[in-house]
Amino acid sequence: MKPTLTVCPYCGTGCMFHLLQDDSGRLTGVEPSGGHRISRGQLCVKGWNAHAFVQHPDRLTSPLIRRDGQLQPASWGEALDLVHSRLTQLADQHGSDSLMFLSSAKVSNEENYLLMKLARAGFRTNNIDHCARLCHSSSVTGLVETLGSGAMTNSLDCIDKTELILVIGSNTTEQHPLIGSRILQAVQRGARLIVADSRRIRLSRHADLHLRHRNGTDVALLNGIMRQIVEEGLEDTSFIADRTESFAALQASLESYTPQRTAEITGLEPEQIIDAARLFGGAKSAMLFYAMGITQHSHGVDNVRAVSNLALLTGNLGRPGTGINPLRGQNNVQGACDMGALPDVFTGYQKVADPDARQKFSTAWGVPLSSTPGLMSTHAIDAAVAGRLKGFFILGENPILSDANQAHVRQALEKLDFLVCVDIFRTETCELADVVLPASCYAEKDGTFTSTERRVQRGRKAIPPPGEAREDWRIIAELLQRCGMPADYADPSEIMAEIAGVTPSYGGIGYDRLGRDGLCWPCPDRAHPGTPILHRKQCTRGKGRFSPVKYQPSKEEPDAAYPLLLSTGRTYFHWHTGTMTRRSHLLDREERKAFAELNPLDAQKLGVREMQTIRISSRRGSIEVMAELTDRVPPGQVFVPFHFAEGAANVLTNNALDPESGIPEFKVCAVRVEAL
Ligand SMILES: Nc1nc2c(c(=O)[nH]1)N[C@H]1C(S)=C(S)[C@@H](COP(=O)(O)OP(=O)(O)OC[C@H]3O[C@@H](n4cnc5c(=O)[nH]c(N)nc54)[C@H](O)[C@@H]3O)O[C@H]1N2
Ligand SMILES: Nc1nc2c(c(=O)[nH]1)N[C@H]1C(S)=C(S)[C@@H](COP(=O)(O)OP(=O)(O)OC[C@H]3O[C@@H](n4cnc5c(=O)[nH]c(N)nc54)[C@H](O)[C@@H]3O)O[C@H]1N2
Ligand code: SF4
Ligand SMILES: [Mo]
């Protein structure tokens, strides 16, 4: 068996493994990397099965062009010329900002960089975004304000050193399994664990305290805990004095969040809030982990501010075993953000509105650049519905299933003059495209991927893409050349050299330096060893800033017509829109059918039995799925994973957005359930 060491294509944990290949060139399996600092010889079930979808017969193998209403095979030359000429026409006719580009947290740093260069330099628009909008955009906005950097502050090794871990809105053992198991190991050696999640997730069984507060009430919960910490004198006064600003404003804002009032808002007991404050405030070092339970709300940025306030209040920043740790989801969502696949920044969060940054990129690329920040992906959907967007270029995303309120997204994409999809499978979104380009998956290309702990690691090509499919970076380079930009890169290491030249935080990163362990950014120069822990002596912005927040209810809460709260998310075996895991037979076998978690008490009232089909309806649509009766969800809540096209959670979800980050409220809306 020929082994190729590469990065897992699923979650942001950043495990590496060897893809195994037999003499005929077929991938036969995966072997974990014993020496890797995250994997340590282990993988989760998705990692173990990461070879399975790669050579699936459904892979796209030829460019497709819509003719007479049907997607039909075409040559690369024809397809690329058509993409270039139609996008150019639309830009000429309606202005560059009538185009929108979606990049992908599934593709490499080099590919994200090239796509943002294509949007900005090739087509002169800042309208570029990616799935971080639906994911950690609230973290980027919130933590840039409070700390100056939106990334995870500490490294995963810190889990081995900390005294206490607070996991809030992260189902870590299922969604970041090797981080979840690291947390369980910490508990075994005596670290305390607090879980704040309305669902009885696996980690909650091992927690010293499980807070099952109502979804959407985290601001109240965290404010309540902070008020109690101050009440009992457990705050870190010297850290507050030396390293923070605006403490008085925070203190004033906490006044009304007494244990009693906090309990009323959250549905907890006042004692639980006091216990949480004593546990958290009493720890000498505490790590905060959070994910979508915090970010995916119409007040997601406020949630992030509250998390940040708690860490600053207790001095849990800038030391080993502490930190504010947003767990990044996709294998390269950190990298896609770092590479500037965002509407307002170039690489390394250099603002397009900053004349110096613009000048630098303008000089590097040899073209003038737009100073107007572009559209967020969620706003782009609204703009397409309003007829203001004409052309959409989607690389490695499946918004028909992943964006909130499917009818709204479908309306937007159907209204476009021209839609291009670049994917490895013919997704539900591809079905609406005018041109579909067949891409390479992770196993078929070289490139770097940045994990949740900001670790840049090398993915390596094991096999060629199937049929005529091409590496994404080559596809984008062809389009750059058609736009008159030089892009004859021999391989992705040359693209990384270009990235390092324009990106201070990646300045010292080069393929020759990314050995077994990769490098954590910021890594400003070739001699720099990388930075596992941020904000050590001071925060990126200088002082850590307290940002007081007020509890605000979710936009659509249960009422008489729609009496249950719908929460959506993920399961252990499947990945997002299912394109890859539903084509991996061992994973598919574990969970074949769309389902919903329903509490047995609600089921009894509704006359629903285990495995019975139910209809779930919201103000936006209805789906039919199988009921799984479980006390994992509290009474009054239904949980639906969004992996299944035939029972798509996003038919139901509310596209109400956070006004600052533009993230949809995936975690709370109102539904009713009927037995069928
Ligand atoms: N197997 C698998 N792993 C994945 C993914 C996948 O699709 N499948 N996706 C990856 C991606 S991109 C991401 S972003 C991550 C997401 O990882 P997670 O955020 O861990 O996953 P979710 O299931 O979206 O939600 C996590 C938890 O938030 C809780 N929650 C919901 N609402 C609230 C609330 O208001 N407050 C609090 N405190 N908790 C709440 C839910 O009950 C749930 O247990 O997972 C990554 N890993
Ligand atoms: N209801 C609900 N909706 C949600 C969420 C939720 O919690 N609830 N979570 C949101 C979050 S956090 C996220 S991150 C998004 C994810 O949303 P998406 O990113 O749209 O979901 P994926 O299924 O991961 O889509 C990735 C696509 O890339 C393709 N692909 C894989 N590898 C490659 C490659 O190398 N090259 C190319 N060109 N294509 C490739 C896959 O086939 C797939 O079609 O979903 C969001 N939607
Ligand atoms: S924990 Fe994440 S990175 Fe590691 S094997 Fe599982 S899916 Fe892959
Ligand atoms: Mo995500």
What does it look like?
The protein is an alpha/beta fold. 30% of the residues lie in helices and 19% in strands. It has 22 helices and 28 strands. Strands 5-4-16-15-14-6-7 form a 7-stranded mixed β-sheet. Residues 11, 46, 135, 168-171, 174-176, 196-199, 201, 215-216, 218, 291-293, 329-330, 567, 569-570, 572, 574-576, 667 line the site of one ligand MGD. The site of iron/sulfur cluster (SF4) has 13 residues, from α1 and α6.
- Proportion of beta-strand residues: 15-25%
What structural category arises from helix and sheet content? alpha/beta
- The tally of strands reads 28
Main beta sheet strand tally, sense and closure: 7 strands, mixed
Question: What is the general shape?
Answer: globular
SSE map:
Elements: E1 2-7, E2 16-21, E3 27-32, H1 45-48, E4 64-67, E5 70-73, H2 76-94, E6 99-102, H3 109-122, E7 128-129, H4 137-146, E8 164-168, H5 172-175, H6 177-188, E9 192-196, E10 209-211, H7 218-231, H8 237-243, E11 244-245, H9 247-254, H10 259-266, H11 270-282, E12 286-290, H12 292-295, H13 300-313, E13 323-326, H14 333-338, H15 355-365, H16 377-385, E14 391-395, H17 399-402, H18 406-415, E15 418-423, E16 435-438, E17 447-450, E18 455-459, H19 472-482, H20 492-502, E19 519-520, E20 544-545, E21 564-569, H21 585-590, E22 595-598, H22 600-606, E23 613-618, E24 621-629, E25 637-641, E26 654-657, E27 664-665, E28 669-675
Parallel strand pairs: 6-7, 6-14, 8-9, 8-12, 9-10, 11-20, 12-13, 14-15, 15-16, 21-25, 22-24
Antiparallel strand pairs: 1-2, 2-3, 4-5, 4-16, 17-18, 18-19, 21-28, 22-25, 23-24, 23-28, 26-27
Helix pairs in contact: 2-19, 3-19, 3-20, 4-13, 7-10, 7-11, 7-13, 10-11, 16-18
The chain binds ligand MGD (2 copies), iron/sulfur cluster (SF4) and molybdenum atom (MO).
